[in-house]
Amino acid sequence: MVGTRGVPARYGGFETAVEEVGRRLVERGHRVRVYCRTTVGAPQRTHLGMELVTLPAMRRRSLETLSHTGMSLAHLLARRTDVALVFNAANAPFLPALRAARVPVATHVDGLEWMRAKWGGAGRRYYRLAETGAVRWSDALIADAIGIADYYRAEYGAPTTLLSYGAPVLAPQDTDALTAAGLAPGGFHLVVARFEPENHVDLLVDGYVRSAARLPLVVVGSAPYADAYTQRVHALAGADPRVRFLGGVWDQRLLDQLYAHALTYAHGHSVGGTNPSLLRAIGAGTATVAYDVSFNREVLGEDGVYVRDVDDVARVLTAAEADPDATAARGARLRERARDYDWELVTDGYEQLVHDLAGRRTPGPQRAARRRPAGATTLEAVPALEVTP
What we know:
CATH superfamily of the largest domain: Glycogen Phosphorylase B
Shape: globular
Structural class: alpha/beta
Distance between the termini: 32 Å
Largest sheet: 6 strands, parallel
Mean pLDDT: 91
Number of strands: 13
Oligomer: single chain
Radius of gyration: 21 Å
Number of helices: 14
């Protein structure tokens, strides 16, 4: 498994998938090697039965992923490997090396990375080209949401294997960590997100500040390369004492208690496909307010509440406090939806895929000829998708 920050999972969806799927594949008798980026302290050699290879990366946003994957591939190609799972279409330039070594490879294409505002014109063009390369050089493509699968079908005529994430259905949580943070069960609204424009943390904070909500808004998250955006989010909160920024929270006990005891969870992600934070919120049985895009509707269905602007945010958060019983009932229904997202079933899909890759029973590289001009919009393939720069 190549192309992520590695495990233990402390960062995002890819890392969560690698940990949850990887450990289950080990339990089923597979040998799993995960490539990890260097962190503080001595590197681990194993984790939950997975073999870990820790290598450095350049600490620049535009080069971090590629530099680490390049070194990982050099290590991988010097050793026997039956199948490679590459995460992130940005790593596509390395796929020809795997093909030359006759290593079957599936690429998890993630979301529509080229739409992220953090990338300038050159970055967006690179991601579009890398996306095309992933189609052209992968034996199989993995999509984690129907909207992503629809996009690749409409854009390239390319099939994908739909493998979403699992939703941890949380048992009733204690409140000790919550109390230590000065919070009460059912007494706050929650946002958990990296501070990036496509996650609309600014929209959620601005809408909350304009609302008549009485309960505090707790914001968890940060971003290593987004100082300007972080400053904007804090400026929108101003001196409002109702907004509490906790920064990055790595204490899983506190995170679980935050998800489980929030009155609402507000989710602004818009371009990344199925999001593990969203799944964790519904697995905790928390009523969820989400930015109105197809990926979020796919998960929440009619039990979600959807927003597009600050007025929507202000209205729905105020309404949630006005009728807490209805809000809690909506969360309970979402908890039942979460049971459809099962890591064992997800692992079944990955296990079948690796057997198909090893047996050369996958679609193989596609011609990758776009069905529209390169500059044309393809957003009709992903209904309700819109990004605010």
